[in-house]
């Protein structure tokens, strides 16, 4: 405080005349105004207050921009890479199993070519864990493309809380019972994975699926719906 008093010991108008420059408020003036307001003219006080308001706005703007930048940087790679979604995938070259007759009978209006075999899936503990409530299908194990461009775009959309919206699909279990759940796409280590989530645990419970059990997973489209077809192996 003693140092500040020495700094403002001279009359401010005299200091301004000595400097030969128009008065321009500085950050130190904000402090000096609080402890020694009598050393400033009313015009200078108004300039300092205006300077204070502008500095506050700029500070809030900078803080907001920094927070938004950090939020963008924190978005994980799996949730923002739309370009990878739109790249054509290479189909896996192996012979698919025969389409179960029950699926043909369930969709008599479809031809064999309308059904796509996706993968043979061995269930892990995480696939039957009701707390996780999802079936994972690694993208590099899926035999073919099965989504439309609109669905690919939908998989990248987020809610206001920054969660994935997902694509609504219908699952037919081995008993041909229908379940409406969500398909989502996540990044898992070095690859992407599709997940049947939201009420998947009900399918596990109804079929008493267990760890190490194997499923064949097919897909088709009927009645403007995307179906996933599950068959026990």
Automatic annotation (TrEMBL):
Transmembrane segments: none annotated. It holds the Pfam family At2g31720-like. Keywords: DNA-binding, Nucleus, Transcription, Transcription regulation. It is found in: Nucleus. Coiled coil: none annotated. GO terms for molecular function: DNA binding. Residues 49-98 are annotated as: Disordered. One of its GO terms (cellular component) is nucleus. Residues 49-58 have a biased composition (Polar residues). SUPFAM superfamilies: DNA-binding pseudobarrel domain (SSF101936). It comes from the Eukaryota. Residues 59-74 have a biased composition (Basic and acidic residues). This is B3 domain-containing protein At5g24050 family. It comes from Cajanus cajan.
């Amino acid at each position: 405080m003693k140092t500040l008093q020495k700094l403002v010991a001279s009359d401010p108008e005299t200091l301004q005349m000595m400097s030969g420059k128009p008065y321009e408020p500085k950050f130190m003036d904000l402090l000096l105004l609080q402890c020694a307001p009598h050393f400033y003219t009313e015009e200078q006080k108004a300039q300092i207050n205006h300077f204070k308001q502008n500095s506050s706005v700029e500070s809030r703007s900078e803080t907001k921009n920094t927070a938004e930048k950090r939020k963008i940087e924190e978005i994980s790679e799996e949730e923002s890479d739309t370009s990878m979604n739109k790249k054509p995938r290479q189909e896996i070259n192996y012979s698919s199993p025969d389409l179960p007759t029950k699926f043909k009978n369930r969709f008599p209006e479809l031809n064999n070519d309308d059904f796509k075999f996706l993968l043979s899936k061995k269930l892990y503990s995480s696939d039957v864990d009701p707390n996780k409530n999802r079936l994972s299908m690694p993208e590099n194990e899926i035999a073919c493309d099965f989504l439309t461009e609109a669905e690919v775009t939908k998989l990248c959309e987020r809610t206001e809380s920054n969660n994935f919206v997902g694509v609504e699909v219908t699952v037919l279990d081995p008993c041909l019972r229908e379940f409406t759940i969500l398909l989502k796409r996540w990044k898992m280590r070095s690859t992407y994975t599709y997940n049947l989530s939201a009420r998947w645990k009900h399918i596990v419970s109804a079929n008493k699926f267990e760890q190490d059990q194997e499923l064949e997973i097919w897909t088709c489209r009927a009645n403007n719906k995307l179906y996933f077809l599950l068959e026990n192996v």
